[in-house]
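stage 2 :: seqdesign
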């Protein structure tokens, strides 16, 4: 897995969101007749509260059979983000300059898809995750932060979306990163990136 850009926590440009777009009600949807009282809207789900800082020590992803310890990663001498070492007992690694899981912002965890002669890496099936799949980060203080997958993207390493991965967000989110796509003599050409949002917090 190639090291990531040092552009960690660059200020991401805020995306403009369209609110209240109109359109024809979907089939089976409730519509209001002229002069009638529209049905009440269901109460909005209360977002889980943010957690205090606590380092992740484990990661569980039931949909792809991952249950791994988590090590801490920093910056390599060239200023790039470290990756976990190539070992037989492969582990995921949390980038320690990112928020811890459950804090506001993007918490970043990296893992290998393969580990050389040792075979498959801990994130070998990361690209199989689908929207809504569950990811649980176990924390050093005994609590946990559970995330729901929003999207899985495969991108060329040359076009790594640093702003989308490391940029500021206003809620607790999680990024899982590994390699993917075609292989060349120098390794994999793409990155697989999972974007997830906090769904349950257990301090």
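stage 2 :: out
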């Amino acid at each position: 897995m190639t090291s990531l850009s040092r552009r960690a926590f660059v200020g991401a440009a805020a995306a403009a969101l369209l609110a209240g777009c109109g359109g024809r009600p979907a089939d089976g949807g409730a519509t209001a007749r002229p002069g009638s009282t529209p049905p009440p809207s269901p109460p909005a789900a209360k977002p889980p509260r943010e957690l205090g800082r606590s380092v992740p020590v484990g990661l569980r992803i039931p949909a792809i059979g991952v249950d791994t310890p988590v090590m801490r990663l920093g910056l390599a001498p060239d200023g790039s983000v470290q990756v976990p070492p190539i070992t037989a007992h492969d582990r995921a690694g949390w980038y320690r300059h990112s928020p811890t899981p459950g804090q506001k912002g993007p918490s970043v965890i990296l893992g290998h898809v393969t580990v050389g002669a040792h075979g498959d890496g801990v994130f070998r099936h990361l690209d199989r995750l689908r929207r809504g799949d569950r990811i649980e980060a176990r924390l050093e203080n005994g609590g946990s932060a559970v995330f729901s997958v929003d999207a899985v993207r495969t991108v060329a390493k040359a076009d790594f979306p640093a702003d989308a991965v490391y940029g500021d967000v206003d809620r607790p989110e999680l990024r899982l990163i590994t390699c993917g796509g075609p292989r060349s003599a120098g390794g994999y050409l793409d990155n697989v990136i999972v974007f997830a949002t906090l769904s349950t917090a257990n301090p």
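stage 3 :: structure notes
- Confidence is low (pLDDT under 50) at residues 1-39.
- The longest strand covers residues 187-202.
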